[in-house]
Amino acid sequence: MKKIVCRCEDITEEDIIKAIDEGYTDLEELRKKLRIGMGPCQGRVCIQLVIRIIEDYTGKKLSKVSYPNPRPPIIPVSLGTLASDKHEKKG
Amino acid sequence: MKKKADVVVIGGGVNGCAIAYNLAKKGLDVALIEKKYLSSGATGCCGAGIRQQWSTKENVELAIKSVKIFEKLSDELKEDIEFRQGGYLIIIHNDKEMEQAKENVRMQKSLGLTVDILQPDQIIDIVSILDIKGMKAIGATFCPKDGHANPFKTTFAYAKAAKSFGASVYTHTKVTGIQTEKKSITEVNTDKGKIKTSIVVNSAGVWSKQIAEMVGITLPNKPYRKEIMATERLKPIFDAMVISFKDGIYFSQQKEGQIVGGIPIPEEISGYHTAPTVSFLEHMSKTLTSYAPCLKHVNLLRHWTGFYDVTPDARPILGEVEKLNGFIQCNGFSGHGFMLCPMVARILTDYIADNKSTQILEKLNLERFKGKNFDKEVYIVG
Ligand SMILES: Cc1cc2nc3c(=O)[nH]c(=O)nc-3n(C[C@H](O)[C@H](O)[C@H](O)COP(=O)(O)OP(=O)(O)OC[C@H]3O[C@@H](n4cnc5c(N)ncnc54)[C@H](O)[C@@H]3O)c2cc1C
Ligand code: FES
Question: Taking the domain A4-63, which CATH number applies?
């Protein structure tokens, strides 16, 4: 049975282990290769799971500082809403 | 870590990895040093657009030759780098821009590029969601062979191929010093050990200035923070990258369906701060929805920053410096270092491995800034 790890980008545990085997053992490298954490939830659902898979599989402890930050605007916002913002600069 | 190498390449961005690959393929013993992970610099946050329509001859030539390499690169590196050619559509807003476009199209065509000037109604044939009035467009130029590739996959593919030819790649290893004797390099110091070498390639992106300072050489490069955003995924709508020099905007739809684009931040200053700004979001969304009103309903998902490594003429610094033998520059790409990388790596490899110089290398040497007269590249976005 396939285990989905990143629901937004449809990435399975198998995909991750395959990439680790290919030498992508860094969280950021995996993220960029597989697009894990780049979906609408920005990894809030999947990143902790991915970290556990890397740590279990490689036996390596990941340092907390290397965890990716969610990037603004935290929740999806429509371009129309952003464009109609009233905070115009003066002058 | 190995004790010595023919060449030490500093920086695991697309340029460092491409040079390591080309050198290793020629049989040189190469060590590549990257302080974080591969593509952690500008390469990992870039738009990865590939454009051949430039205002200076050297950039057009480098880009045309790079595209020739990109077209076969997936086969060469045995890894899909997702190269595709949807073209670049450059919006023209006024007569002055039109004059400049005509002149540049003439120059680009003389170098063999397929590029045309389009009327407003022809713009819609290329990208149907554009609003001619909203963009205030009077025309456009279009090169169908411009395009895009996946920057991570390209970098990883170069690195993997480099390793297969015997290059050593050290990630999470930082260069801390370069030892010299008289006018020559003797050793590179890192936080994980030392490597004896006589040739160093400085492809450390926006940090190249600091690397050069280690040997007392001052580069004129300045870091400029740039912001870029991605929307949710949509079904395929358009293939071309749309850009405007007047508004500074660029945007395209990626393979997965998201629209990725950027624009200069109005109050931008040079420096190393990284936090994304609200004013970018506002400026970007306003300009983008004036270009393509139907995108109003599309959600913006992510927004991040990266750096342009900008030189006084907005062109890269390439080749050996006069003051120190074997110190090779490959930096100062000023926001277009992904697209030029395949050819730049070959030119530098020919120089290092076979002592072959080219006109481009001489034109783009650091020493050009001694004079006051250098051609400035003006076709810049983002
Ligand atoms: C928002 C944005 C959009 C862009 N869009 C495009 C585009 O559409 N098309 C295009 O062609 N270009 C684009 N660019 C420019 C492009 O990203 C860069 O020119 C290119 O990626 C530079 O690659 P590089 O390998 O030279 O440098 P980088 O990718 O910056 O790599 C330099 C590496 O050196 C490492 N390093 C630094 N100091 C040290 C040290 N002391 N020891 C060891 N390692 C070190 C860094 O960690 C880094 O990984 C864009 C840039 C940005 C910021
Ligand atoms: S589950 Fe991975 S990004 Fe949402």
Answer: 1.10.10.1100
Residue B201 lies in a domain: yes
Residue A61 has a pLDDT of 83
pLDDT tens track for B327-371: 999 999 999 999 999 999 999 999 999 999 999 999 999 999 987
**CATH code: domain of residue B297:** 3.30.9.10
What is the dihedral sign for C-alpha B156, B162, B164, B166? negative
Count CB-CB contacts under 10 A for residue B202.
29
pLDDT at residue A51 above 60? yes
Please tell me whether residue B192 adopts helix, strand or coil conformation: coil
Q: Bridge partners of B242?
A: B89, B251
pTM for the model stands at: 0.92
> Is residue B99 one of the residues assigned to a domain?
yes
Does one domain contain both B156 and B304? no
Residues with CB under 6 A from ligand 1: B 10-16, 33-36, 40-43, 45-49, 174-175, 203-207, 226, 228, 262, 306-308, 333, 335-339, 382
Rg (CA), chain A: 17
Mean pLDDT of chain B: 95
| Pairwise CB contact (< 8 Å): A83 & B40 | no
pLDDT at B271 over 80: no
pLDDT higher than 60, residue A89: no
Q: CB distance A78–B300 less than 8 Å? A: yes
- Residue in B closest to A22 by C-alpha: B160
Structural domain count, chain B:
2
Domain of residue B18 covers 7-46+152-221+313-370
For the record, the structure tokens of B115 come out as: 């590029």
CA distances from A86 to B229, B279, B283 (A): 20, 11, 12
For chain A, helix, strand, coil in percent to 5 are 40, 10, 50
> Are B318 and B348 a contacting pair, CB within 8 Å?
yes
- What sign does the dihedral B249-B254-B259-B265 (CA atoms) show? negative
Q: Are residues B205 and B332 in the same domain?
A: yes
Q: Is residue B238 part of a domain?
A: yes
Q: What is the DSSP string of B67-106?
A: HHHHHHHHHHHTS----B---EEEEE-SHHHHHHHHHHHH
Domain assignment present for B62: no
Are residue B190 and residue B158 in the same domain, yes or no? yes
Instruction: Indicate if B270 and B359 belong to the same structural domain.
Output: no
Q: What is the CA(B218)–ligand 2 centre distance, in A?
A: 44
Q: Are residues B228 and B216 in the same domain?
A: no
Tell which atom from ligand 1 comes closest to the C-alpha of B33. Answer: 43
Mean pLDDT within B318-333: 98
